[in-house]
């Protein structure tokens, strides 16, 4: 019987990642001990907290990695829980030893593309677009997060079908994940369907905490689902994330496009870029293959032209997403159509927009804050 070496076990463990942090457990101080008896291996792993929602995944991934070693016999994986001191060390190793929380996405050199999904009117499909684009991007292998910035009208966790709560490691908030997307929402911090009744400064503080205290890891893309209109939250986002680009959602209706223009033109005051326009609820495909323009047509093009004129930059229509009952059902049951119906024309439209977003490159170097912080 062959002898398994400790270095072989450690090297196997270096391929096991903490699913929330996205780094190998060997780098996170999570391997408590390795014991080898001939070909039998025992590994003890530290969990960040006792109620770690990822416990089963971590244990089974660790077991699988060790079992992969040639000549290994039985493998036993047990767990222990980090002390407060270990959690503090972990936090320092992940975020540095700063007392003041920083917003990683606003730092020079951040490579995360940040898109704020906005509209003038309510109910045009901002949250639906956010959730479907996020899951489509995650399915392409990108690391994606959603910040539900609609404090009063939060809907992201429901649309992603998640009732998981975040947990805390030292002073970091670990965001729940669903369909490969990390998320944070005020829904995670209120009981049931309780309403949030806050004034502007509280809203600002909540968004700030979501950006700085949540451990997002290395995101390729962060999507912010904004409430409708040009209120406090839009200004907060512009102040905290001057590099965030706006994605304007409108229906094809002329009146909706007029209102959407106001949401887009806020970018002139905040010095933010408008990445493009998404026309949602465009012509519905009927069972006989004909189409029906329930909300008219041309709204997306109209607002893209107007915003191009206003901003002096090319604001494209990134895509038109049809009115589709399956998309509505996907949101209601928490299974986004971008995942559940990969071959539908609606998903194709969403994927095309996701491709456009994934390709764009932004540099925040030299961007200045266009708003005075009051
Ligand atoms: N393309 C579509 N086809 C069918 N239904 C849709 C489509 N887009 C959105 N909906 C439905 O329209 C309703 C409003 O969508 P959603 O909540 O995404 O809009 P919103 O702009 O985020 O609203 P709010 O302004 O209230 O935050 C939801 O019931 C959603 O399922
Ligand atoms: Mg919404």
Q: What report would you give on this structure?
A:
Keywords: ATP-binding, Hydrolase, Iron, Iron-sulfur, Metal-binding, Nucleotide-binding. This is Iron-sulfur cluster carrier protein. Residues 7-77 form the MIP18 family-like domain. GO terms for molecular function: 4 iron, 4 sulfur cluster binding; ATP binding; ATP hydrolysis activity; ATP-dependent FeS chaperone activity; metal ion binding. There is one protein chain. 35% of the residues lie in helices and 21% in strands. The chain is built from 12 helices and 17 strands. Helix 4 (126-139) crosses helix 12 and helix 8 packs parallel to helix 9. Strand 3 (31-37) and strand 4 (40-47) form a beta hairpin. With 374 residues, the protein is of the alpha/beta class. It binds adenosine-5'-triphosphate and magnesium ion. Residues 119, 122-128, 150, 153, 155, 227-228, 280-281, 321, 323-324, 327-328, 331 line the site of adenosine-5'-triphosphate (ATP). Residues 119, 122-128, 150, 153, 155, 227-228, 280-281, 321, 323-324, 327-328, 331 line the site of adenosine-5'-triphosphate.
List the SSEs and their pairings.
Blueprint: H1 6-13, E1 17-18, E2 23-24, E3 31-37, E4 40-47, H2 55-67, E5 75-81, H3 84-95, E6 113-118, H4 126-139, E7 144-148, H5 156-159, E8 167-169, E9 172-174, E10 177-178, E11 181-184, H6 200-212, E12 221-225, H7 232-240, E13 245-250, H8 254-270, E14 274-282, E15 284-285, E16 291-292, H9 299-311, E17 317-322, H10 325-333, H11 337-340, H12 345-359
Parallel strand pairs: 4-5, 6-12, 6-13, 7-11, 7-12, 13-14, 14-17
Antiparallel strand pairs: 1-2, 3-4, 8-9, 10-11, 15-16
Helix pairs in contact: 4-12, 6-7, 8-9
Adenosine-5'-triphosphate binds at residues 119, 122-128, 150, 153, 155, 227-228, 280-281, 321, 323-324, 327-328, 331.
